[in-house]
Amino acid sequence: MNRYGVQFQVKNRPSLDPEFMPVLKFNRAFLSTAKKPVTFAVERSNGQMAVCRTFVHGTPEMAQADGYYAQRLVKTMLWMKGGFRVYVSGDQGVYEHLKKVYSAGGEQAFDFDYMANVFEHPFEVVLCSEPPQEKDAPKAIGRHLEGCRIGFDAGGSDRKVSAVIDGEPVYSEEVVWFPKTNSDPDYHYDGIVAALKSAAEHMPRVDAVGVSSAGVYIDNRTMNASLFLKVPKDLFDAKVKDIYIRAITDTFGDVPYSVINDGDVSALAGAMSLNDNNVLGIAMGTSEAVGYVDSEGRITGWLNELAFVPVDANPEAMRDEWSGDIGCGVKYFSQDGVIKLAPRAGIRLDESLSPAEKLKVVQGLMAQDDPAAVQVYTSIGTYLGHTLAYYYDLYHCKHVLLLGRVMSGRGGDLILAECKRVLEEEYPECSGKIFPALPDEKFRRVGQSVAAASLPEV
Fold it and tell me: CA 216 to CA 225: how far, in whole Å?
């Protein structure tokens, strides 16, 4: 395979997507001949800094390859850790390229705008002679089981709440709601309060409330979330940014609370069920939701939005409708990935069906061991094997917990088996270091709601 003059080989290719170019393969081939040191640093809130020291070629012949490598690497840093300012040192040409593409009218305008809104700070790319120092602020959070607690999990199609006493759920309910299509934030607020009150009725008191919610949360505030997709920006700023804080304090007064991204809570639930740390949780559903608990059992505060991290260097890779970018995880590790591959396997999907209904069609075929469905899930497993090796490079995670409706049933078993095979055959350096798995019964018992309830410290 060849990308911008960088040659590399891929032994295991998805049968339904043979032009798939694993980003890790490209990166390793690129770095094998790049010798000029450069440093990228990404600044996020409270002076926290993610730093990557790497290399480029710095020659006119490899300028395109240098620009592509830098652009994809910075995008990975932004969506993995988050930030509003990018520092570049070591190469003027790379700096100028990044400043051009990460701008209001540039190729990465979506990232430029998104990060500025999330961090409430103008986005900028800065040239510096000395790179900043790495600075992180992971927090020990969760695993507090004592007392009477509420765990609330806000999803895109239903909301779940549990009353938990000393680590044991005494009541749970699941209510269908429609947050993504509702533009009135009072609809969301009323739904949250109704759930909290419902759980409170089954306990003598409320000592703490933990919230697991899709989206980006900083200091318990909603900075961006698809749950509030239709809410106008002025109402979002006025009523959504503090929606969970208001709902909890209006209902229970001054009780401890914590609001965390649902991916991180899934990873925490996995760590609790495994009785171990260093867990990356990947939920393949409507999108690719990811969370991470580090080797000390802490939540990092990173974005972990790997749905928008590049995994495929193929210039013809599928484009994501929301971000406008190509080759990112959302089109490989979600129901979109299944829907993308199904027609290539000869599976006809009625266009009048919703994405979730299309997934069910393929799952139904997989339950009958249909050869076309087998091809779909095997191809996703091949994607995943290559990509988990890349995620291991990024996180050095030990456990990978694979969740979500794409991983349910026989299809999930096939994805996992193929993923393990590709990892072992193509990335032997990962052998014995990374352990992908499906959730076990203990995880299902601990679950998202108990993990969410355990978030605040009393």
Answer: 6
Paired residues of 328 in beta bridges? 310
pLDDT one-digit tens code per residue, 302-351: 999 999 999 999 999 999 988 999 999 999 999 999 999 999 999 999 99
Which tokens belong to 275?
């009785």
- Residue 439 — very low, low, confident or very high, per pLDDT cuts 50/70/90? confident
- Which string of DSSP letters, residue by residue, matches 249-316? HHHHSS--EEEEEHHHHHHHHHHHHHT---EEEEEESSSEEEEEE-TTSEE------GGGSB-B--TT
Take residue 349 and report the two structure tokens written for it.
Answer: 């999907």
Chain centroid offset of residue 100 CA: 26
Return the amino acid letter for 59: T
Q: What does R_g of the chain's alpha carbons equal in angstroms?
A: 22
DSSP state, 372?
Answer: H
Widest pairwise Cα distance in the chain: 71
**Residues 330, 312 contacting (CB under 8 angstroms):** no
**Residue 97 half-sphere exposure, CB side, CA atoms within 13 Å?**
18
Name the average pLDDT for the chain. 94
In 3D, which of 306, 337, 335 has the Cα closest to residue 323? 306
Exposure string over 56-83, b if 16+ CB within 10 A, otherwise e: bbbeeebbebbbbbbbbbbbbbbbbbbb
Q: What percentage of the chain has pLDDT greater than the value 90?
A: 80
Question: What pLDDT score was predicted for residue 444?
Answer: 59
Instruction: Write the pLDDT tens digit of every residue in 156-166.
Output: 878 899 999 99
H/E run at residue 190: helix 185-200
Which residues on neighbouring strands pair with residue 56, listed in sequence order? 36
Q: How confident is the model at residue 449 (pLDDT cuts 50, 70, 90)?
A: confident
In the β-sheet with 208-213, what is the strand arrangement from edge to edge?
168-176, 158-165, 148-154, 208-213, 257-261
Half-sphere exposure of 91 (CA within 13 A, CB side): 24
For 166, other C-beta atoms within 10 Å of its C-beta total 10
The answer to whether the Cα torsion of 204, 269, 143, 305 is positive or negative is negative
CA distance 278 to 90: 33
